[in-house]
Amino acid sequence: MLPLLVAVIVGGPPPSRPIIGGYGKYKYEYIPTLLEFPAGAEVQHVHGLEVDKQGNIYATYVNWNNGIATNGTDQHCLVRWNPDGTNGTFMDLGGTELCNGTPHGLKLAMEDGTPYLYHANCGVKPTRNGFGKLSKTTLDGKVVWSHTGSFGQPVSDYRPTWWAIPPTGKYVYLADGYGTSNVYTFTRDGVWQNKTFGGKGASDGKFSNCHGIGVDPRTGHVVVADRENHRIQFFEVDEATGDKFEWVKTLPASWGSVLQNGTQRPCNFRVLENSTDPSLDGMAVIADLGANDQTKPGGPRGQVAILDKENNVVSVIAVSDLLGWKGSVHPHDSHFLANGDVVVATWLPGTISYWKKM
After folding, report:
1. Model pTM?
2. What is the Cα gyration radius of the chain?
3. Which of 45, 114, 172, 319 is most buried, judged by most C-beta within 10 A?
């Protein structure tokens, strides 16, 4: 069954009736009063989402005063909401050290019982602010370590996008999605191990923008959203040595309505764990950026795919069609909450939306 889509004009008035996305057993209602940014936030783009063990929701965003754009006063980039989507609060201990440039990927890690956030800042090409900045922070943004610039790659082709953090072992993996399409191995204290995997291409294990990267808790595989190859790839790693990054399988990006033409652009792959409804554990959600030009007839639309435990598509939230009136047309990250609700971050312009499971 395909969703019934209602086209909404970007910048037009909001619909007068409730906004419902998805289909079948997985329908979601948009709740406009939740995930509001705190006063003073000047949001250019929203890129990454995370949810901590208590259910608090985090987002990293690009402000309009980040050293690249200078037509604002906001110096924040990290916000936390309560588990119910209320009380947006700046996590501001990182200041401009964390927020200058283009804050992008956000990944939560538990290390010796303490939660941390790993940040990837793709910046812009040197010598501009935030170029290739990697950071590890506490949940309130306090910087534990930070490294700006490349570490051996040509500086003209390095713009990292996201981290994968295996739950055990001392190694983590960085995706250079907007640059080389390589994946690099680091220690948890931010030291590159001179190990490189992937690279540009369309064959198994190669990438055309390895944009989002994470760990599939169902298998332990590292999972990569290979955006411009329109697919998700899975890899086996050796957590003890960091030497192995071996292709296992590929999931083609194929979901949504007949308008999609097989050109979906998946940005990230997130799996639900420890749900308050055990039947939902192991389901996955994928943010699909959609076309750069949403006005092209028949062009792919920005949306969010809901997958079951075997990675079969069971629903699609047509975000750009349903929330185009508020500018939410390019889903860049999405995340399940413990109760099965879905949070969506969109790029250009940056918005966050809360979708309550019906």
Report:
1. 0.93
2. 19
3. 319
| 357: β partners | 28
Burial-class residue 39 by CB neighbours within 10 Å (0-12, 13-18, 19+).
exposed
Cβ(322)–Cβ(6) under 8 Å?
A: yes
For residues 57 and 85, the answer to whether their CB atoms sit within 8 Å is yes
Q: What one-character DSSP code corresponds to residue 278?
A: G
Alpha carbon distance 288, 303 (integer Å): 5
Cis peptide before 161 (omega within 30 of 0): no
Query: What gap in Å lies between CA 59 and CA 57, rounded to an integer?
Result: 7
Say if CB 272 and CB 283 are below 8 A apart. Answer: yes
- 300-358: per-residue pLDDT in tens? 579 999 999 999 999 999 999 999 988 899 999 999 999 999 999 999 889 999 999 99
Strand runs (DSSP E) across 238-318, as ranges?
245-252, 266-271, 284-288, 303-307, 313-317
CA distances to 145, 163, 210, 269 from 136, rounded to whole Å, are 5, 11, 21, 21
Q: Which two tokens stand for residue 239?
A: 């957590």
Bridge partners (DSSP) of residue 214 are 223
| Secondary structure (H, E, C), 149-205 | CCCCCCHHHCCCCEEECCCCCCEEEEECCCCCCEEEEEECCCCEEEEEEECECCCCC
Q: Helix, strand, or coil here: 5? A: coil
pLDDT tens, residue by residue, 153-203: 777 788 999 999 999 999 999 999 999 999 999 999 999 999 999 999 999
| Contact (Cβ atoms closer than 8 angstroms) between residue 210 and residue 224 | yes
Structure tokens at 347: 């790029």
Share of the chain residues as helix, strand and coil, in percent rounded to the nearest 5: 5, 40, 50
* Contact yes or no for 45/86 (Cβ under 8 A): no
